[in-house]
Q: What sequence folds into this?
């Protein structure tokens, strides 16, 4: 016997309706939600204390995987650190943490002090980093966790971490619009993140998925600082012909459709890929790379928005 | 599967045990409330219904990666199309990427809506012998954000498996989101109750991708999911002007080939990055019939052949 197709409705997991809304009937998580919704968060005070010591909290979102969120998060953090800012990078991609490799902190453990976790400092840039990758015994170790356990870890990464005073906290996220995203927004809600940077690739297929992420931000009242279109064009090293490998135009299309600034288009630059994998400071190693030049222009635009 | 979940605290008594939710080890576990309520001990009434539906689906292929953006959806659709070239076979695509469903666009079915009948939900037919189901078809608008936590996503996946009326299928190809989380645990749990099922793992050559893909291989081994092999996508880029092949994502640690050797797995194929493939996917066209002489077409057909041989060897 089949069941009727219901209208797809939002999960109210983070509202007062959690577990009680009509859409909750039959949901496997209903009893968990309805037992928790009336409780105030006992950790709220310490979370706020931690977050108030951080001037700017910027989320790097996409919805689509593989568009370069982590690469862009790291590049932004390195540029800000090069400019003398106190920067932290929080990697909440629990299944696929890329930050330890890109910031060259793979072999360093997170130290658990009596006051909390000490983030690891990247050797090539003065950046504090925390990622689940730093807790794993080896590269092959898989973190196969369902939502609630991922949520619990992300809370600890804010509540129990000694970020200290920072100018900027860049938050790298996994693809999607699910537990991790809801959790981090709920944690940041009282101290209001500055906003989200949305990364897309030029392809129409990306636009379809990334538009959902934009709608997610709008629904959750997260300001969107702008869109970055990554992997825009590849220059053939032999004949210098520039090919739009992933077809073109998603960034501009999304910016126009949702009334959001297009911060810029960033090329696919193989010269920096090897440096990225080594966790090097890209701007220091390749001062005039096409990737770096585009990203610097984008940073200027972001800073203008943040100053307003 | 054991009743002690993968993510359980140490000394978890197991979700089916009398002590579920009540043991001292349960304190602080996010699932404590559900376990102590007794909900986890009740047998899942839908499991029988899922098994019945899957009894007419012969061979199930999970397309996994761990890393996003390597081309799982592209590879899923191309493999399904390649399998469907044999007109005597019935092929289905199930898209369980609930936050980022790509199959409606890639298969040229963006405007379609799902209809239900007494027999269940009808999948969308994009060819005589090729059907697709995705949450994309259930959404009211093309850019609706599906903001669901894990349990609700699991519920949807179960509904797909319970309610979609595939009829008799020779192959069901399942497109997954990146990662090793709720969706992956759920689909493995349900499909494993109805063998044969096996995975193909998609990667791109660079180490940042391999990092995540190694975890996916670990995941498959932990849940006893057989792996047919590895497919390396975007191995080289062929410049449309001068035809030089470049390794666009340098395989600094040996790429998919080394990964296959290290993990004792077959390398099923190395697919080039052909800009025409991206355009075909954007427009929902069948690249295999649009560009029959492309090396990429030959590679995809070869991967499909190896999948067929794998399942023939199983029966």
A:
């Amino acid at each position: 016997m089949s069941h009727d197709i219901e209208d797809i409705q939002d999960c109210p997991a983070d509202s007062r309706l959690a577990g009680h809304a009509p859409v909750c009937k039959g949901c496997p998580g209903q009893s968990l939600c309805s037992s928790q919704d009336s409780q105030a968060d006992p950790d709220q005070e310490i979370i706020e204390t931690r977050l108030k010591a951080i001037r700017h909290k910027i989320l790097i979102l996409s919805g689509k995987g593989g568009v370069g969120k982590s690469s862009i998060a790291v590049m932004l953090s390195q540029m800000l650190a090069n400019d003398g800012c106190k920067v932290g990078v929080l990697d909440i991609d629990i299944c696929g943490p890329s930050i330890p490799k890109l910031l060259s902190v793979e072999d360093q453990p997170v130290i658990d002090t009596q006051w909390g976790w000490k983030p690891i400092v990247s050797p090539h840039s003065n950046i504090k980093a925390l990622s689940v990758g730093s807790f794993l015994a080896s590269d092959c170790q898989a973190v196969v966790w369902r939502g609630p356990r991922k949520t619990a870890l992300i809370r600890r990464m804010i509540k129990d971490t000694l970020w200290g005073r920072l100018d900027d906290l860049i938050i790298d996220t996994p693809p999607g619009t699910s537990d991790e995203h809801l959790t981090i927004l709920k944690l940041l809600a009282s101290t209001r993140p500055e906003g989200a940077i949305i990364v897309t690739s030029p392809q129409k297929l990306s636009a379809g998925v990334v538009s959902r992420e934009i709608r997610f931000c709008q629904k959750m009242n997260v300001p969107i600082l702008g869109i970055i279109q990554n992997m825009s064009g590849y220059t053939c090293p032999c004949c210098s012909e520039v090919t739009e490998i992933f077809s073109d135009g998603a960034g501009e299309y999304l910016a126009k459709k949702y009334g959001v600034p297009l911060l810029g288009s960033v090329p696919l630059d193989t010269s920096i890929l090897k440096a990225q994998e080594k966790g090097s400071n890209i701007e220091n190693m390749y001062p005039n790379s096409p990737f770096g030049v585009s990203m610097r222009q984008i940073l200027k635009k972001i800073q203008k928005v943040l100053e307003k | 599967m054991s009743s002690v979940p993968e993510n359980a605290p140490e000394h978890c008594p197991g979700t089916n045990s009398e002590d579920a939710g009540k043991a001292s080890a349960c304190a602080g576990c996010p699932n404590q409330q559900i376990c102590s309520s007794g909900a986890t001990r009740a047998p899942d009434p839908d499991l029988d219904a899922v098994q019945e539906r899957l009894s007419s689906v012969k061979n199930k292929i999970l397309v996994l990666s761990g890393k996003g953006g390597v081309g799982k959806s592209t590879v899923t659709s191309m493999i399904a199309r390649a399998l469907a070239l044999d007109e005597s076979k019935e092929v289905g695509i199930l898209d369980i990427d609930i936050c980022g469903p790509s199959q409606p666009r890639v298969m040229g079915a963006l405007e379609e809506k799902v209809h239900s009948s007494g027999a269940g939900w009808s999948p969308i037919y994009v060819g005589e012998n090729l059907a697709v189901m995705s949450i994309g078809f259930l959404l009211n608008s093309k850019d609706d954000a599906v903001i669901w936590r894990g349990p609700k996503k699991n519920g949807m996946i179960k509904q797909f498996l319970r309610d979609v009326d595939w009829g008799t299928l020779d192959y069901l190809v399942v497109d997954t989101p990146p990662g090793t989380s709720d969706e992956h645990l759920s689909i493995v749990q349900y499909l494993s109750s109805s063998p044969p099922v096996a995975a193909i793992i998609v990667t791109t050559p660079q180490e940042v991708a391999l990092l995540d893909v190694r975890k996916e291989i670990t995941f498959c081994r932990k849940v006893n999911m057989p792996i047919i092999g590895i497919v390396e996508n975007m191995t080289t880029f062929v410049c449309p002007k001068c035809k030089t092949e470049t390794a666009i994502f340098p395989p600094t640690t040996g790429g998919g080939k080394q990964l296959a050797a290290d993990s004792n797995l077959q390398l099923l194929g190395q697919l080039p990055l052909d800009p025409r493939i991206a355009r075909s996917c954007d427009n929902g066209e069948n690249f295999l019939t649009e560009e029959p002489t492309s090396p990429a077409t030959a590679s995809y057909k070869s991967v499909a052949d190896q999948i067929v041989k794998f399942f023939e060897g199983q029966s």
